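Design request, C-alpha cells follow.
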C-alpha cells in the first residue's frame, strides 16, 4: 500500500520528466523564433509550455520555479498578443531562464534544495516595456495553488491563443446576459499525471469562480480517482462564464464545455472549442458537429501510452536475461541427451520368450529355479524398456517445447529491449542551443544538420551519451571549423556545417559527428606529442597519418594554442573515449586535411544482453562481442615470427600482432599453456589484433553483469556473465585489449609493421 510520501515522490519524478521534455521543446521553439520572432503560432506554443510548467510547479509548491515561470509567462503573453516584439535581449533572457529551470530540475532530481536567482528575476522583470528600470522585481506568488489562482481576476480582455478560435461577440453577449444556473463540463487529458492533485486544484479554482451547487462526481470522490476524465460542475445563477473558463485554464484540461442549465438544472445545448468554450443563449440553435481535429486525434492516440520507471524496465530486462541463460542451458541439455535416445533400440521381449520355451519338464531341476528367476528379471526389464520407449517418444515433444521456449524468449527479449528504446531526436535537438552559443562566442557561423533523428537507442545510453557528444560538437566548432577569413580563402561557404547522424547497422547504433572544417593537422599533432613527451622524435617520424590521429585520445593532449572556456585544457577527448568504452562501445576518428573530420561512435543496442563469441583458454571461458570479430583462422600451420619482443602472424598476407590471454593480462604461474587451436582476429576501427584461443565454443547471447570489485580496475575487461552450466565467463573489451597489446609492443617503423617480408 502506497503512502503519501511515495505518492509525492512519484509526482516529483513525473514533474522532472515532463519539465525536462518541455524545456527541450522550448529551446527548439526559441531557436526557430530567432529566425522568425513574430511567428504567432510559435509564440503561442512557447506560452503554453511555460504556462504548463508554472501550473505543475505550483501544484508541488516549487516557489522558485513558479515565480520565474509566472514572470516569463507574462512576457510571452505580451509577445503573442503583439504588444511587444521579441528582441535579442528577450531571446537571451529566455534562454537563460531555461538554463535556470534545468538547474532546478536537476536539483529536484538529486534531492537538493532549490535556490533563487534575484538577478535573473530582475532581468525578466525589465523585459516589460512599461516597467521602470529601477523597479524591484515582483514578489514571488503564493505557493498554495488554490490561493494563488483563485485570487487571480478574470481577464476576458487577454489576447486569445493564435491557433485557437475565439469566442464570438454574439456568444459572449449571450454568456453575460444568460439567466439561470451555469453548467461546466471539464474534460481532462487521458493518462494525466498527478491527476488527483490537479483535480483538487481545479475544484478549488472553480469554487472561487462562483457558488458551486453540485459536482459530478462528488468532490470527495473526484480527488481520489486516478483515472478521472470528466467533471460536471453546476454554478449558481449570476456566475460569469469567463471566470469559470479562466479558473479551468490549468495544465491537463483538454476541453471545457459551458452551457446554461434549464428546467431544474437539466443539461442544455452547448458549443465548445479546445481550451476556449463559448456559451449560447438557450434559444440558440444547436451547433453542427465539429470537424475532425488532428490534435485531438493525436491526443487520443497517446491515451494508450503509459510512463514506466526505467528501473522497472531494468528489472524486467534482467529477468529476461536470466530466461535467455536458462533457455540456452535447456537447449544444451537437450542436445546432450538426444544422441542417447536416438541410439536406443533395445527390446527384451524375444529373450524372455526364448528362455520360457526352454523351461520344460525335461529341464534339470537344479537349474529350473534360477532360470525362472531370470525369466522374471527379464520380464521386469521388458517393462522398464517399454517405459524407456515411451520416454523416447515423448523426448520429441520436449525438443519441440524447447524450440518453442527459444522462440518465445527471443520475442520477449526483443520486446523488452524495444520498450527501453527511445528516439535520439530529443537528444540531438538539445545541441542546437550548444551550437548557437559556441558559434556566437567564437564569432563563427555554423549550421547544425541532424540526420536519423528517429533512430532508437537504449534509454540508459541516451542519458550517458549526451556529454560525450557535446564534447565532440564543441571540439568540431572550436578546432575543426576555420575562421570566416580562412574559409573564404579556401573557397568554402561562409556558413560551416556540423552534421550529427544516427543509424542502425546490425545490433549496433552508429553516431557520427562530422564537420567540413580544416581537418586534423597531422604535423602539428606530431610536434605536440614530441613536445609533451608522449613520443620520441624518432618514433613520431615513423607514424602514419591515421596513427597520429589516434594520439588525440591521450590524456592531457591538446593542440590548442591558448586555453579558453571552450577548449585547450587537454581534457575532454580522453574522457569521451573512456565514457564510450564504458558503454561497451568504440569511437574512431577519420580526418582529411582541408576537408573536415568525422568521429564515428559505435554503441550496442543495449547494455544488458549481447551476442558474443565464446572461447576457452586453459580452464577459463572468455567472450568478445561478435561484431568485433573480423574472422577466425586456424592456429595450426600459421606462419609467425617473433620480432621486437612481439609475435606477428601472416593472416591473409597481412602481418598482424598475435597475443594470448596470458600475455595480455600478465598471467603466470603453474597454468599450463596448450597449443592454441584458433586465432580470433579482433577489429576496432582500423586496428586489428589476433587473440589465441584453445577451443572455440561458438556464438551465444549472454547477460552482461558488472564486474566484481577485484576486477573493476583491470583494463581490457568489459564485464562478466554466468553461462547456462553455471560457469563464469569474462567478457573482453576489444578496444582496451588492442590498446594493451600496443603498449606491450616495442616501437617499430610503420613500414616494418606492414611488410610481409618481415617474416622471411
Amino acid at each position: 500500500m502506497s503512502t503519501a510520501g511515495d505518492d509525492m515522490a512519484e509526482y516529483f519524478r513525473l514533474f522532472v520528466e515532463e519539465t525536462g521534455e518541455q524545456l527541450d521543446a522550448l529551446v527548439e521553439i526559441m531557436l526557430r523564433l530567432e529566425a522568425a520572432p513574430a511567428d504567432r503560432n510559435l509564440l503561442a506554443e512557447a506560452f503554453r509550455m511555460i504556462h504548463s510548467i508554472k501550473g505543475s510547479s505550483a501544484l508541488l509548491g516549487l516557489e522558485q520555479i513558479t515565480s520565474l515561470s509566472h514572470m516569463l509567462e507574462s512576457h510571452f503573453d505580451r509577445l503573442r498578443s503583439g504588444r511587444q516584439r521579441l528582441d535579442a535581449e528577450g531571446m537571451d533572457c529566455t534562454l537563460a531562464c531555461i538554463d535556470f529551470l534545468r538547474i532546478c530540475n536537476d536539483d529536484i532530481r538529486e534531492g537538493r534544495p532549490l535556490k533563487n536567482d534575484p538577478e535573473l528575476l530582475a532581468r525578466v522583470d525589465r523585459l516589460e516595456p512599461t516597467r521602470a528600470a529601477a523597479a524591484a522585481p515582483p514578489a514571488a506568488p503564493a505557493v498554495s495553488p488554490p490561493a494563488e489562482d483563485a485570487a487571480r481576476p478574470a481577464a476576458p480582455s487577454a489576447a486569445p491563443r493564435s491557433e485557437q478560435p475565439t469566442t464570438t461577440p454574439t456568444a459572449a453577449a449571450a454568456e453575460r446576459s444568460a439567466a439561470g444556473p451555469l453548467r461546466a463540463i471539464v474534460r481532462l487529458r487521458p493518462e494525466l499525471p498527478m491527476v488527483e492533485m490537479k483535480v483538487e486544484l481545479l475544484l478549488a479554482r472553480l469554487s472561487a469562480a462562483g457558488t458551486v451547487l453540485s459536482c459530478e462526481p462528488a468532490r470527495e470522490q473526484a480527488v481520489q480517482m486516478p483515472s478521472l476524465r470528466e467533471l460536471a460542475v453546476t454554478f449558481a445563477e449570476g456566475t460569469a462564464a469567463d471566470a469559470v473558463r479562466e479558473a479551468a485554464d490549468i495544465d491537463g484540461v483538454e476541453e471545457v464545455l459551458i452551457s446554461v442549465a434549464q428546467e431544474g438544472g437539466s443539461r442544455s445545448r452547448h458549443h465548445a472549442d479546445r481550451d476556449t468554450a463559448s456559451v449560447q443563449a438557450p434559444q440558440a440553435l444547436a451547433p453542427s458537429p465539429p470537424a475532425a481535429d488532428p490534435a485531438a486525434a493525436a491526443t487520443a492516440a497517446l491515451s494508450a501510452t503509459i510512463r514506466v520507471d526505467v528501473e522497472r524496465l531494468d528489472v524486467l530486462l534482467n529477468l529476461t536475461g536470466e530466461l535467455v541463460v536458462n533457455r540456452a542451458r535447456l537447449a544444451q541439455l537437450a542436445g546432450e541427451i538426444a544422441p542417447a535416445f536416438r541410439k536406443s533400440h533395445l527390446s527384451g521381449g524375444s529373450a524372455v520368450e526364448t528362455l520360457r520355451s526352454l523351461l520344460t519338464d525335461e529341464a534339470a531341476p537344479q537349474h529350473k529355479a534360477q532360470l525362472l528367476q531370470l525369466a522374471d528379471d527379464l520380464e521386469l526389464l521388458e517393462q522398464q524398456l517399454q517405459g524407456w520407449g515411451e520416454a523416447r517418444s515423448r523426448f520429441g515433444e520436449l525438443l519441440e517445447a524447447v524450440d518453442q521456449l527459444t522462440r518465445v524468449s527471443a520475442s520477449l527479449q526483443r520486446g523488452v529491449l524495444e520498450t527501453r528504446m527511445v528516439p535520439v531526436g530529443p537528444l540531438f535537438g538539445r545541441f542546437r542551443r550548444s551550437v548557437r552559443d559556441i558559434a556566437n562566442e567564437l564569432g563563427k557561423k555554423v549550421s547544425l544538420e541532424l540526420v536519423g533523428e528517429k533512430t532508437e537507442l537504449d534509454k540508459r545510453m541516451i542519458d550517458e551519451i549526451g556529454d560525450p557528444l557535446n564534447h565532440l560538437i564543441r571540439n568540431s566548432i572550436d578546432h575543426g571549423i576555420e575562421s570566416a577569413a580562412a574559409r573564404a580563402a579556401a573557397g568554402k561557404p561562409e556558413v560551416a556545417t556540423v552534421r550529427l547522424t544516427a543509424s542502425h547497422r546490425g545490433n549496433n547504433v552508429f553516431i557520427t559527428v562530422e564537420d567540413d572544417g580544416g581537418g586534423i593537422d597531422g604535423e602539428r599533432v606530431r610536434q605536440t606529442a614530441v613536445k609533451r613527451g608522449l613520443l620520441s622524435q624518432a618514433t613520431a617520424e615513423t607514424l602514419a597519418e591515421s596513427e597520429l590521429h589516434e594520439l588525440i585520445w591521450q590524456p592531457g593532449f591538446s593542440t590548442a594554442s591558448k586555453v579558453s572556456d571552450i577548449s585547450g585544457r587537454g581534457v575532454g577527448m580522453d574522457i569521451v573515449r573512456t565514457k564510450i568504452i564504458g558503454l561497451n562501445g568504440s569511437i574512431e576518428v577519420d580526418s582529411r586535411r582541408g576537408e573536415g573530420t568525422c568521429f564515428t561512435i559505435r554503441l550496442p543496442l543495449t547494455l544488458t544482453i549481447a551476442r558474443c563469441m565464446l572461447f576457452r583458454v586453459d580452464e577459463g571461458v572468455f567472450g568478445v562481442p561478435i561484431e568485433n570479430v573480423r574472422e577466425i583462422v586456424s592456429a595450426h600451420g600459421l606462419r609467425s615470427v617473433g620480432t621486437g619482443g612481439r609475435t606477428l602472424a601472416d593472416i591473409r598476407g597481412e602481418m598482424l600482432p598475435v597475443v594470448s590471454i596470458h600475455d595480455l593480462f600478465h598471467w603466470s604461474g603453474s597454468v599450463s599453456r596448450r597449443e592454441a587451436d584458433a586465432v580470433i582476429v579482433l577489429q576496432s576501427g582500423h586496428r586489428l589484433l589476433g587473440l589465441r584461443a584453445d577451443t572455440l565454443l561458438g556464438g551465444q547471447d549472454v547477460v552482461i553483469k558488472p564486474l566484481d570489485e577485484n576486477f573493476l580496475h583491470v583494463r581490457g575487461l568489459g564485464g562478466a556473465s554466468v553461462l547456462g552450466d553455471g560457469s563464469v565467463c569474462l567478457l573482453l573489451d576489444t578496444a582496451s585489449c588492442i590498446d594493451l597489446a600496443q603498449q606491450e609492443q616495442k616501437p617499430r617503423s610503420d613500414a616494418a609493421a606492414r611488410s610481409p617480408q618481415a617474416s622471411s
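Comment from the thread starter after seeing the answer: thanks! Confidence is low (pLDDT under 50) at residues 132-178, 263-303, 746-760.
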